[in-house]
Amino acid sequence: MINRLLSLFAQSPLVKRFVAAPFPKWMVLLADLFIIGVSCLLVFCCMSTTGLPGDRFFTPDVKGLVVWGMFAVGLFMTGASRSIIRLSVIEDTYRLVLLVLGVSFVEAALSVVVYLLTGVYYLSIWNIFVTGVFVFALMLLMRLAVKYLYLRLSGVSKKDRKRVIVLGSAINSFFLASALKSEFEGEYEPVALLSLSEKVPQGGTVSGIPVIQYNPERLREIFDFYRCDTLMFLSTQMELMRNDVADIFLRNGIRLMMLNQVEEFDMNSKSMPNLSGHVHNIKVEDLLGRETIHTDNPAIGNLLRGQTVMVTGAAGSIGSEIVRQVAKEEARDIVLVDQAETPMHDLQLEMQQMFPNIKIHLFIGDITNPTRMERAFKKYHPRYVFHAAAYKHVPMMERNPTEAVHTNVYGTKNIADLSVKYGVEKFVMVSTDKAVNPTNVMGASKRMAEIYVQSLSTWLRHNSDGPTTRFITTRFGNVLGSNGSVIPLFRRQIEEGGPVTITHRDIIRYFMTIPEACNLVLEAGVMGQGGEIYVFDMGKPVKIWDLAVRMILLSGLKPGEDIKIVETGLRPGEKLYEELLNEKEHTTATHNKKIMIARVRTYDYMDVLEHLRKLETLIDGPAHDIVAEMKLIVPEYKSNNSEWESVDNELKTSDSKSDVIVEMNTAE
User: Fold this and answer.
1) Residue 374, Cβ neighbours under 10 Å: how many?
2) What is the dihedral of CA 318, 322, 324, 326, to 10 degrees?
3) Distance between CA 474 and CA 450 in Å, rounded?
């Protein structure tokens, strides 16, 4: 009968408004001030005499008014009336304790001062103690009553909620469980707290929610007992799910959901914060086993604010994110250079919506066209250039070395030379880990681009009287979600029912999110003085086979049964692992532990120019000759799983013959 009455009562519009919206701050404050007034009235009027000499000088109403004023000031200082009382009891209790102890201490100090000055007791210890007890008890009871009433009124439809187990037994996990349980018309009902600690006592509860201990061997049994198939946790607990812990849950058919960090609730909002809207299924990107890189360098804003910035390859995944981050740093003008008209148009619409005060200039053109690119520099005179335009697809460039050289080498040379001509302050080039000991045409072409800008920077530093363009190179591995990334490919293959194709079971790669990589590019651009090649700390490498398995498990399917994984063999130019030269013996540290300077071989600018002029004469000839010249410029370039391995053999034979001739001449 009581539940039926509550159900009918809960359906009224007035009650729904009460449950769906938080109390205004002024209402909570008035309630607290009223409670303090009642407490003072009880203590100083009902207990009007203490038998102390001070009773003749300080009447109960004066004492009560002063104490009430002290508590009112304390309310503002501790913020005890500003929280959403239905969502947090422990934090409220802490603030109430702080309020009562603080005011009681001030009351005692005031009483001592009055006694020392007048010889009269203002407040007795008994007055202070009883007032504090009344204020604390009544304010806490009011909060508990509101929370209980809210839970009873909003809990009528909880049978329709999805049952979840919350990870952890610490205070933050309890807050999550309590908030989910208290959410009006929420989607989730926490039924237990799962602790990874072995010290959790069996049968323990937190605010009525049972605490259970993690046991990988009985995991499925535990979730079946609670009629639940979902584990929910906070984004701050992501580290607990790595090191294969997440795989154990996934292999037991348990769905993983994460609550993103929710900013402090807006008390001026007309409705309660929607926690369910911040919950999402965990993505494979969350399980890469690497620490997320967070940087907040004010020097980036100081450098770019109010400046004109050019971004080549602006329509690509890296280039477009650089554009977004440059816009966040309040650049005045951003020049977008690319050939892809549709992505450029889409990016322009996005930027106009997100950053209406920044001037976005679209410049369609090919970076290998000197005349067209010079028009861009002459028209906009950028102060900073971020060069992200390049061909990056390894197998495709292996089959088309002419285009790789034309765009990656001569396109970079074109933009670099124009940067010098038009007084660009800094030129930041986006390179790749595949430029380290390259085994493919793409990596070798990017290494040649690095060589050119590095040698040009050194030559300018020694042959210019005044300031000139500073060239900085940034080098990192694969980025998640970029065009051509393996993760979108795997997702599409899983959606199509498989198989998931992987080139080799043992292949490993470094991964980084696009925002992380671009943020480090900007920071390297700030710290670079010219000529450096910056290497980013990509964390631990990821085995692509494990990545495929996790993605299948995250889809609720079983690898090898529902979705097959097929090895297709290494692609042309591909190798099992990529190198970043991030070992200590090959790098120099910077003030940012995630960014290092690579110690690499330096080249003379004039020698590089001579090689590039010779290569240019071969650009319309056989690809064989182009690759052979690339290997002479970059001696560490050794082809792997490629038709160009024959060129290595030819050069090796040629070197052997040269050694023989040298020995014969020496003998003569």
Assistant:
1) 15
2) 180
3) 9
Comparing C-alpha atoms, which of 384, 334, 380, 382 is closest to residue 354?
Answer: 334
3-state SS, 573-600, equals: CCCCCCCCCCCHHHEEECCCCCEEEECC
* CA proximity to 187, closest of 236, 232, 250, 234: 232
Is a pLDDT exceeding 50 seen at residue 665? no
* Through-space distance between the first and last CA atoms of the chain, rounded to whole angstroms: 116
- Phi, psi angles (nearest 5°) of residue 155: -95, 10
Task: Return the H-helix or E-strand segment holding 66.
Answer: helix 60-78
**Least confident range of 165-174, 320-329, 568-577, 585-594:** 585-594
CA distance 312 to 327: 15
Residues 173/234, Cβ–Cβ less than 8 Å: yes
Cα 162 to chain center, whole Å?
28
Structure tokens at 339: 């050939």
Instruction: Find residue 216's DSSP bridge partners.
Output: none
Place of tokens 């509101």: 146
375's enclosing H/E stretch is: helix 370-380
- pTM of the predicted protein model: 0.67
DSSP for 145-170 reads HHHHHHHHHH-TTGGGSEEEEEE--S
pLDDT value at 88 more than 70: no
Within its chain, how far is the Cα of 221 from the centroid?
35
Q: Indicate the domain borders of the chain.
A: 2-154, 158-282, 298-477+514-535+580-633
Burial class from Cβ neighbours inside 10 Å (0-12, 13-18, 19+) for residue 416 reads: buried
Who contacts 216 (Cβ-Cβ below 8 Å, separation ≥6)? 248
pLDDT band at 57 (very low <50, low <70, confident <90, very high): very low
Q: Which is it for strands 500-502 and 542-543: parallel, antiparallel or unpaired? A: unpaired
Give the residue ranges of DSSP H helices in 79-170: 90-118, 125-154
Radius of gyration of the chain measured on its C-alpha atoms: 34
The architecture in CATH of the region 298-477+514-535+580-633 reads 3-Layer(aba) Sandwich (3.40)
Residue 299 in 3-state DSSP? Answer: helix
Spell out the residues 6+ positions from residue 280 whose beta carbon is closer than 8 angstroms to its own.
Answer: 257, 258, 260
pLDDT, position 108 = 77
Closest by Cα among 299, 601, 567, 268 to 458: 601
Lowest mean pLDDT among 52-61, 510-519, 600-609, 615-624: 52-61
Q: Do domains 158-282 and 298-477+514-535+580-633 have the same CATH topology?
A: yes
d(CA 364, CA 367): 10
Give the DSSP H/E element, type plus range, for residue 243: none
- Which residues make beta-bridge pairs with 566? 501
From the list 164, 253, 240, the residue with the least C-alpha distance to 209 is 164
In angstroms, the Cα distances linking 657 to 635, 639, 650, 652 are 18, 21, 11, 9
* 368 Cβ contact list (under 8 Å, min separation 6): 406, 407, 410, 411, 414
Residue with tokens 């043992």: 506
Residues 136, 140, 141, 144, Cα dihedral to 10°: -170
Q: Which CATH number fits domain 158-282: 3.10.450.50, 3.40.50.720, 3.40.1180.10, 3.20.20.70?
A: 3.40.50.720
> DSSP 3-state assignment of 476?
strand
